[in-house]
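Continuing the batch. This is chain 6 of the set; chains 1 through 5 are on the previous pages. Same settings as before, nothing changed between runs. Recording input and output for traceability.
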Amino acid sequence: MREFRIFEADMNRSELPLKGIKVIDASTVLAGPSVGMYFAELGAEVIKVEHPKYHDVTRSWKLPTESKESSVSAYFSSINYGKEYRTLDLTNDEDRSQFSDLLSEADILLMNFKRSDYQKFQLTDEDLKRKYPGLIVGKISGYGTESDRVAYDLILQAESGFMSMNGQPDGPPTKMPVAFVDVLAAHHLKEAILLAMYSREKSNEGAIVNVSLYDAAVSSLVNQASNYLMASHVPQRIGSKHPNIAPYGELFQTKDGKTITFAIGSDAHFSKLCATLNIPMLSEEDQFNSNQKRVENREALFEKLNDEVTKWNAAALLEKLQDLNVPAGAVKDLKEVFEDPQAQSLILEETMDGTITRRVSSAIFTK
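Output for chain 6:
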């Protein structure tokens, strides 16, 4: 069994697993378009449909350093790759007829319109089932199919509890620096569409699948949700630390000024860490000899570990820990990340409207 990344740099498009699948991407912003890009990477023909005047808003989400004249932004480019582009006004009869022609030949339709727009565009569930019985429709909403609320990732991070948990103890609630909830919802929608495709192979029937940003966010609280639901623990901001594991997420400064962190998930990991730092007896001390005790006494533990970490250069310590299979790593900025050949192998490049665009691949699996 070998692992390989599926995109054009690796294979001919005729060899890609979704060659012959046609996707109409009528979604905007991040979640829906990233699903469209996923299918494009896997060989599907993806046609992105935008309004002639009101294009996908992320085309305008530019850094100050980006070209004001370009029709694309880095943000837009990050989740639009390998697609064809059409402009259609779905309130116009002629354009709506052209859109219908596209759907009659399509396998998948992606949408994230406001609830009231589906009827206006004649794209209600009933319309779609009647006209295109084999079509798989993937719909994204903010708060569910019955809500009209406008939803942006920031608001979902705020209202689903993520911001309240994220940040330093003495700092304000903090959003994660990517559209995290959009990414989660996109993964949920990919799974639903792939399952619908599998089902269609047996039944020849299409499906309509709905994903909401809110449901995706709350369902992704996982252990933090159960900490509350089972132990009435309301998580507080603790920086990068883990509420159930220690040392895990504490930040250490090495002799050469690098920042590193450990993810010590077991007593065996902790014993190896202490031995490496030349304090083997620490793992046997009563206040540190179990994970639960280490969580309870994590501040004292940090001081003891930090005293030893500062004697090491980062590369030497990390290499030794990695040889022992102890999870540890350096905190890197994106410049350092993309200096790594493994990260570089994920970069996809495409020229769009005369602009060279780059993004990272999302279609990676094992064959």
